[in-house]
Amino acid sequence: MEKTAIEHPVLVVMGVSGSGKSTVAGFLAGSLGWELAEGDDFHPAANVAKMAAGHPLTDDDRWPWLDTIAGWIKDRDKLGEPGVVTCSALKKRYRDVLRGPNVVFVYLHGRRNQIADRLQARHGHFMPPELLQSQFEALEEPTPDENVLIVDIEGTPAEEAHRIIDGLGLKATAHGENTI
Ligand SMILES: Nc1ncnc2c1ncn2[C@@H]1O[C@H](COP(=O)(O)OP(=O)(O)OP(=O)(O)O)[C@@H](O)[C@H]1O
Ligand SMILES: O=C(O)[C@H](O)[C@@H](O)[C@H](O)[C@H](O)CO
What we know:
By secondary structure, the chain is α/β, with parallel strands linked by helices. The chain has one domain: Rossmann fold. It contains seven helices and five strands, in the order βαβααβαβααβα. A five-stranded parallel sheet has the order 2-3-1-4-5, sandwiched between helices. The longest helix has 21 residues. The chain is globular, with a radius of gyration of 15 Å. Bound molecules: adenosine-5'-triphosphate and D-gluconic acid. Pathway: Carbohydrate acid metabolism.
């Protein structure tokens, strides 16, 4: 996509479980000095329990969660502040809930095997690696008309964040921990 001309963008870092949303969003928000929200924190407890028990969420499980994230995005807009939020946003109709004048999607694209390896190596997270198959089944990749930057999940998280900042024509302003 073109470099963003939006004055206060909210970057929605999206992709299947294990694509690196939380990790990369941390570097992005840290480097840009922008507010960060973790989409997983907006899930009702029942959703987390369901996933932890090995069951994929349904559309009905996801609508209230998406509404909450959309609310966070709108609040940033009202404040005239940029931000970064993680959200799997797997289907086009989920992204329709999140879309807005200030929203730019950043899709972390990777091969299934590569992501499966990362999930196998990840510990202490409620999401079981076995749900990756269902995540790919639900996935409708964003198309170029969706105001999206597509990023391959190659290199270190800091390198990925650097490519995103560059690709969107943004400027890293902050220095310190978790910056690029
Ligand atoms: N660029 C990278 N290179 C190597 N490992 C990475 C990279 N990005 C993320 N990881 C690792 O891959 C695993 C998955 O990343 P992360 O938890 O950020 O994904 P996620 O998309 O937020 O997953 P979920 O949706 O399940 O919360 C983590 O263990 C993380 O440390
Ligand atoms: O839409 C979904 O199925 C969920 O949002 C999942 O993607 C989880 O939230 C996440 O992957 C686990 O951290």
